Amino acid sequence: MSNEAQQVAGQQVSEALTPDEVMRYSRHIIMPQVGPQGQRKLRKAKVLVIGAGGLGGPVALYLALAGVGKIGLVEFDVVDLSNLQRQILHQTADVGRPKIVSAKEKLEAYNPNVEVVMHHTPITSDNAMEMIADYDIVVNGADNFATRYLVNDAAYLSGKTLVDGAILLFDGQATVYEPGQGCYRCLYPDPPPPGLVPSCAEAGVLGAITGLVGSIQATEVFKKILGVGNPLVNRLLLVDALTMEFRTMKTRRDPNCPLCGDNPTVTELIDYDMFCGSAPLEMPVATTA
Amino acid sequence: MSISVYIPSPFRRITANRENVTVEGSTVGEVLDAVERAYPGFANLVYDGEHQVPRHINVYLNNTEIHDLDGVQTAVQDGDQIAVIPALAGGK
């Protein structure tokens, strides 16, 4: 075999699933919508998860279990006892430890084949674009409106798919934003006045809702990577866990949207604390839901 | 017209924990006002100080947001469902 052929063969062999991977992902590989080719797509994918808490936890976990090759986590908070009711990547022994370290350890224990990159910093207007650049898909697990608008804008300006999710009490929302087909600002052009919409700390959240919505987000990531199914683009999925009813509302790109509309006025990242009318914190803001 | 209004869980403290309330009205605005009469305090959740629906709340007629229709002037028919859906931020 010539050197060139050996090199090509080497590349093909290196791209092939290992026997361990074939066994580990066998329940994916036998599915016609995945197969070996789909599993290799998952392995090549790079997904950034904003927050390693309530929503980010199940998202990152299912990404790792599925063999998504590179999982970035953005998280600055430390594990608090009150997190353990719902944040599945953290355990009692982790209280007081950085969430991102705790999360990375758990994900790598589940699947040592995946690369977990820690972005141990708040996501800000100064670092968001650079942070997002290296990833294919962004998943939102933020816990405040300022970060949601920031992540939305950064994902759109970077040309990245944004898989969004939010929770409170017994309710959840999930959707997918593709650049050019609407964004978070199209859905919610203005944030609520500060203090009007309670946080989970103020109103509460059923712990299992994070798994419900986080799993939906992870599923949408897989559909995007594999190119299968009907993504939640231009659809807002509403979850009411009390009645266990799911509703789907139509969403659309607003031609007047300041970010993705016909005449954009937001062409770079802004001061989102000011936009949301919230005072900047002295300490970095935790981004976990 | 008899219209069913879906109330998300963050707003149910106003509607005695009911997830659906049925009221009479011929437009979206009339329906929302009818909910306020039945459950005082509801208007404070869905309207701003100028009696406009703020942009962090979406009101859907069936599954279409009313800004894509005629706003609160959108006519409703028997059997329609209105859903009032606020933005959620998740939480710590």
Per-chain topology:
The complex is a heterodimer of chains A (289) and B (92).
Chain A: H1 3-15, H2 19-24, H3 26-29, H4 35-44, E1 46-50, H5 56-66, E2 70-74, H6 99-110, E3 115-119, H7 128-133, E4 137-140, H8 145-158, E5 161-168, E6 171-177, H9 184-187, H10 200-203, H11 207-226, E7 235-240, E8 245-250, H12 272-275
Parallel strand pairs in A: 1-2, 1-4, 2-3, 4-5
Antiparallel strand pairs in A: 5-6, 6-7, 7-8
Helix pairs in contact in A: 5-6, 5-11
Chain B: E1 2-6, E2 20-24, H1 28-38, H2 42-46, E3 57-61, E4 64-65, E5 81-86
Structure report:
The complex is a heterodimer of chains A (289) and B (92). Chain A has 289 residues and is an alpha/beta fold. Helix content of chain A is 37%, strand content 16%. In chain A, helix 5 packs across helix 11 (207-226). The model of chain B has no long low-confidence stretch (mean pLDDT 94). Chain B has 92 residues and is an alpha+beta fold. Chain B is built from two helices and five strands, in the order ββααβββ. In chain B, strands 2-1-5-3-4 form a five-stranded mixed beta sheet, with helices on one face. Helices cover 17% and strands 25% of the residues of chain B. The radius of gyration of chain B is 12 Å and the shape is globular. At the A-B interface, strand 5, strand 6, helix 10, strand 7 and strand 8 of A face strand 4 and strand 5 of B.
